[in-house]
Write a structure and sequence with these properties.
- This protein is α/β, with parallel strands linked by helices.
- It folds into four domains: about 210 residues, Alpha-Beta Complex (Spore Coat Polysaccharide Biosynthesis Protein SpsA, Chain A), CATH 3.90.550; about 90 residues; about 200 residues, Spore Coat Polysaccharide Biosynthesis Protein SpsA, Chain A (Alpha-Beta Complex); about 110 residues, no CATH class.
- Strands 1, 2, 3, 4, 5, 6, 7, 8 and 9 form a nine-stranded mixed β-sheet that branches.
- Helix 10 packs parallel to helix 12, helix 12 packs across helix 14 and helix 20 runs parallel beside helix 21.
- The longest helix is centred in the C-terminal third of the chain and has 26 residues.
- The chain is globular, with a radius of gyration of 30 Å.
């Protein structure tokens, strides 16, 4: 009988399995049995296991129907014969001395559980920041798994694969992983087993190598990219632990800490979910928290924790409703008129809608407004994310949305009247339209002239004079056509709108102003990178115009490009502005990409699609000549700077 049983669940990991097995076989401590549980793999994993088993008699293969990770681990535990068990995931690998060091720590401290650190890879894409933190433990010893270990030591959880434990601890308590919990099963297992352990040692050595990201990972594609599924799975885990702790008596010992941990653990994902799902699950959670002593502990919690609990308890009282529209706002900086924007949405006569606010790195003052309305109106959903372009926020909002229709609102604009949603919605439904446009009102008009007051209802070119907020989109149409926002700088919304209207089976217009656009972003200079994006937006829309034979879009892009606003904006980009050569060592002000896009535009302009009016056609070459002149002046300024240096 081996001293250590190494348990490896295997499911469709042919790309990584050899590296994992080699790292286990090559351990400096050799008195091990290697139990590989093939959980119904459909790739070459099974044949790889068989080849390795022929080479190394320590490898035992268990083959079973697919039941998920907890099921595979349970099968390994049941088959283990070693004095200790160690868990390794088949897409990871371990350091050569991992088993030896874990065993030495267990024997030295007479501990039933040993926890080590881990290296996180790959580094591109960058791992989430908390991973390095929780996988970097400090050396420590605990007599048992009390609240100090479970809630105060950040490195004690989660991840079962960096734990090494006495098998007798499992058999003595008849422990098995809950096979109905597939997300957070490690946490659930640790919450149950740590309080029963006699001695727990943490060592700072990073002995495990954790592959945090796999594009082909089932968990990554189905669960972690789906906020709702992830949160529901975590709620299920919390409810399971609460039930087990009530049964074992641990809730009486550590209930206050568990309540605070669970509300913090769930809150940030919970506020992203649709209201109906929030209300249903809040009822389950608040019952468990009440049974666990919430009213006994509530005034001992910090203020922000009490606010979280209050949010859950008030959401539990909400009634379900049919969500017709998802209004999406992407907040990415300090927005002066943000509160007015939100009020104009929440005061709508039509109540069956949700307001999804994407916090894309908004300022503290803007976030305080977000927090206020999140707690004030439960139709508000909030997705907090790191700083990114507002278009990423809109794409996230599309994925999150529960409504049949989508409306994208800029955080400094507003809806004109209280009946905007009802009129838009009734028109879109009556006309069975994919896109429903409205006339536009603008403050401080920048370059759009505004939609004409009179129009032919059979003419679908009004999008040429609209901003993004002038349009309501049928969600099924957006999803089916795989429409997404791309970062085109100040033109991002217009490109999405143009593509949607050209692809749309039916676009209709509501004959009244519905949306007010406040152009707070007026400027006469943009960085070179933004300039390239704007030019690319023109080129891409010209390609759209060719693809769908739209002379209207073609000519609109042409007229925008040669307008005073854009001509000055783009030509000003050739100036060094406030950035010296020393401040741009990598050529940040280089116009090579700008020229590439201009050449692309010149190749896409079709003279046959332009109106036959004297003076129009020569305008674009004139713009190009002015751009080149500006570029030469810029190069001259750079040369002068070098001479000075």
């Amino acid at each position: 009988m081996a001293i250590v049983s190494v348990l490896i669940p295997v499911y469709n990991v042919e790309k990584y399995l050899k590296q994992c097995l080699d790292s286990v076989i090559g351990q400096t401590f050799s008195d091990i049995e290697i139990i590989c549980v093939d959980d119904g793999s459909t790739d070459r994993s099974a044949s790889i296991l068989k080849k390795y088993a022929k080479k190394d008699k320590r490898i035992k293969i268990i083959t079973k129907n697919n039941g998920g990770l907890p099921s595979a681990r349970n099968a390994g535990i049941n088959a283990a014969t070693g004095e200790y068990v160690s868990f390794v995931d088949a897409d990871d690998y371990i350091q050569p001395d991992m088993i030896k060091k874990m065993l030495m720590a267990a024997v030295k401290d007479n501990s039933e559980i040993v926890i080590c650190g881990a290296n996180v890879f790959p580094r591109d894409p960058a791992p989430e920041g908390w991973l390095d933190w929780v996988l970097s433990p400090e050396n420590a010893y605990y007599e048992t798994g009390d609240e100090k270990l479970l809630f105060e030591n950040h490195a004690s959880r989660p991840f079962i694969w960096r734990t090494f434990m006495k098998r007798e601890l499992l058999t003595r308590n008849k422990f098995q992983l809950n096979e109905d919990i597939h997300v957070g099963e490690d946490n659930a297992f640790q919450f149950r087993i740590y309080p029963k352990a006699k001695g727990i040692t943490l060592i700072s050595d990073k002995l495990y190598n954790y592959r945090w990201y796999r594009e082909d990972s089932l968990m990554n594609s189905i669960v972690y990219k789906n906020v709702e599924k992830k949160c529901l799975a975590h709620i299920k885990m919390v409810l399971h632990v609460a039930q087990e702790w009530e049964r074992s008596g641990d809730m009486k010992k550590m209930g206050k800490d568990f309540l605070q941990w669970s509300v913090e653990f769930l809150y940030d994902d919970f506020i992203k979910m649709p209201l109906n799902e929030r209300a249903e699950n809040a009822k389950l959670l608040t019952k468990v928290w009440t049974d666990g002593g919430f009213y006994k502990y509530q005034y001992s919690f910090p203020d922000h924790i009490r606010d979280m609990f209050k949010y859950f308890y008030t959401v539990a009282e909400e009634k379900p409703f049919k969500c017709d529209v998802s209004v999406i706002i992407s907040a990415d900086c300090d927005h002066t008129y943000f509160e007015q924007t939100i009020e104009s949405c929440l005061e709508q006569d039509h109540k069956n809608f949700e307001l999804i606010i994407i916090n894309n790195g908004a300022s503290a003052s803007t976030y305080s407004v977000i927090h206020k309305y999140l707690h004030k109106d439960k139709r508000v959903r909030v997705y907090n994310t790191s700083k990114s372009h507002y278009t990423d926020g809109y794409n996230t909002g599309i994925v999150l949305s529960a409504g049949d229709y989508l409306l994208f609102v800029r955080p400094d604009d507003w809806l004109e009247d209280k009946n905007v949603l009802s009129e838009w919605l009734s028109t879109a439904k009556r006309e069975k339209a994919d896109v429903c446009l409205s006339l536009n009102k603008e403050l401080d008009s920048m370059y759009y002239s505004g939609a004409p007051a009179k129009y032919d209802e059979n003419d679908s070119t009004y999008y040429l004079e609209c901003v993004l907020g002038n349009a309501m989109f049928r969600k099924k149409f957006v999803v089916d056509k795989k429409l997404e926002f791309t970062d085109y700088s100040i033109e991002s919304g217009k490109v999405f709108l143009s593509a949607a209207c050209l692809i749309s089976g039916k676009t209709v217009v509501v004959d009244k102003p519905m949306y007010v656009s406040r152009n707070v972003y007026k400027q006469d200079w943009i960085p070179t990178g933004e300039c390239v994006k704007v030019l690319k937006s023109f080129a891409d829309r010209l390609e759209l115009a060719q693809k769908y034979s739209s002379a209207e879009l073609h000519n609109k892009i042409f007229s925008l490009l040669v307008s005073d606003y854009y001509m000055n904006l783009l030509i000003n980009n050739t100036k060094p502005y406030f950035m010296t050569v020393q401040e741009c060592p990598n050529g940040e002000n280089s116009q090579s990409e700008t020229f590439e896009q201009i050449i692309r535009i010149l190749n896409l302009i079709d003279p046959d699609m332009l109106p036959n009016e004297d003076g129009i056609s020569p305008t674009l070459p004139s713009f190009f000549a002015r751009f080149v002149d500006g570029r030469h002046k810029y190069i001259g300024d750079i040369s002068d700077e070098y001479i000075k240096v």
